[in-house]
Model the fold of this input.
Amino acid sequence: MDKDFGQKTGASCSKTNALSEKGTKSIYYEKHADIRKPATKLGYRHSGEPEWNGELTDLVCKHRNDEQEIKTDIGEHHITHLTIDGDCHLSLVEITPHVTHLRLQNTSAVGSLETFTSLKKLELCRIDLSLEWPGLLANSLDELRVIDCNMKTLPSWFEKLKRLKALRISCSEEHYRSLQSIPEVVIKLTSLEVLGLSNNGVRQIPDSLGSLKSLKKLDLNRNPIEVLPESITALGSLQELNLSRCKISQLPESLGSLTSLKKLDLSSNPIEVLPESITALSSIEELDLTYCKISQLPESLGSLTLLRELAISMNPIEVLPEPITALSLLEELNPSHCYIRQLPESFIQLQKLKVLRITCYSKPSDNMFPNIFNFSGHQTVPEVITKLNSLEELDLSNDQINELPDSFIQLQKLKVLRITGVSKLSIPHGLQTFPEVVTKLTSLEELDLSNHQINELPDSLGSLKSLKKLNLFGNPFEVLPESITSLSSLEELDLSRCKISQLPESFIQLQKLKVMRITGYFELSKISSDTFGNFKLHGLQTFPEVVTKLTSLEELDLSSNGINELPDSFIQLQKLKVLGITGCSQLSDDMFSYSFLFHGLQTFPEVVTKLTSLEELDLSGNRIKELPDSNNLDGKEDDILWTDQVNDTNEDTDDDNEIYDDILTEEQAKKLLEASSDEEEFHGF
Done:
């Protein structure tokens, strides 16, 4: 099977993308010039006739409703992947003998397929399957994908596909559950090795499914299946079984008969108890039990000696059984959001473990205060974790960890470390200082220490030369050390909801930075019975000029800051694809007016219209009253996010004091006061 077929031609019909694999040339041939942009890298003549250099292997024909043919001689090129989107009336006979992958979507003009003599994989998206298919080469077709065709059963021509090895019929949300049962015609395709019927309305698995003796992969996820029949155990060749997001509450004991099974996904089912027979799955390598209702794992789980990945997150499990440490080949373990309070000392035996995720879950207290939570997370990092020397990814997010042991330095292979704090607590929580030991993990590529109480960053932070992603969201530090600009590999940086007001000029050294988020927030304190308290905006007060020199930026979010204009130098950010600069409103401390102070843009920044790579623009919450000429927006109007505060055309607003006329009712104000009265800080509106 070519597992990349869906990726190359697009797994859904929402977009049709030209291919960009290394060594592959691809081209769009579309009706309108303004949607040809992906192909301009290869070149277009103004006449609408495409030109290219080198070998062309992929062709996308989209929405061409006239009779004009492609005049350029494409027959010289070996087109192997062809997509026809819409009723394209093109002469393609010269290229069809080489086409192995064909995608048809949104078209009623199917035509003959007899010239596609090399066709191996066919994808049909939003097609009327009742159409006749003259020349369908059933003897050569290996794989068929049917997406969003909105049918209750399958047409008779499916019976021709005797040699079909892979059949996938799926639906997106808008065509949800179109296939109500597994059609009998599917059972007759005895050469099938892969069957995917995800996101349909199948409620029952027929006993006849067991006759598909060659089946290696069965995907029935997102179907309202309640019972797994005994007959499924007749699929002796089955290697992968996906039953996630069904309604299965009980598993048959005979499940253990699937001794060839390597991957089993039972996530998001109301399963409470695992049958002992599951431990007979002697070939199992990946087991996903996420989001079930399992409270206890069987002791015999340790007999699955080939298991490499085990996911048990979002289950009410309080104890990991000791035998789990006998899984000597285990590389990934995810018991996140369970009630586990400690790890057994024998955990040290899992020396091949590369990925460990242990995030905590908020378990309601049994006492009289239902709004108080007992956190099952660890106060300190279990010492045994620091002895797992093969760890490459460690996630302890939402645990109330307040320090890291010195032995943490032993994790020298660690590439990803996430230890986020618990947000929305009025009590001090999490790390109070930046753990110095982290700066000695020289292989670290991603670090997330968001939502802690870190008020100062060490100079040694700059020693993390391999770091690509740094997330310090929600920490109260006010100053960035100069050493942060020594992070020469940094590509993504999140400093949102911190208290920094400016960026150092040396920020210009971060020339690999692609994503940067620095959003502000309001702090509320000194609440009393006659006032809401004092408000302070934490964030950038003006636009930092140094940002415009970070020319590799592709995503920039400076929302909820004190920025009221963009400099002309912003035009230098020509690689920018996503830009967010939302405004924000600050509740005044006058208990009787309940009015808002405004921070944000007053006019649409003209310089934005010159960012030709921009794909997403969010200027919501500002006071922009007028858009520039639509010609300048160049088709970006649909990508601009607006809210009810953007087009504020009320001419009676007090521009001198920048106060909205939006007034809270007394009842709304009281609710707001009650919600914040127990907190020292109130973050944002």
Summary: The two ends are 52 Å apart (CA to CA). The first strand starts at residue 26 and ends at 30.
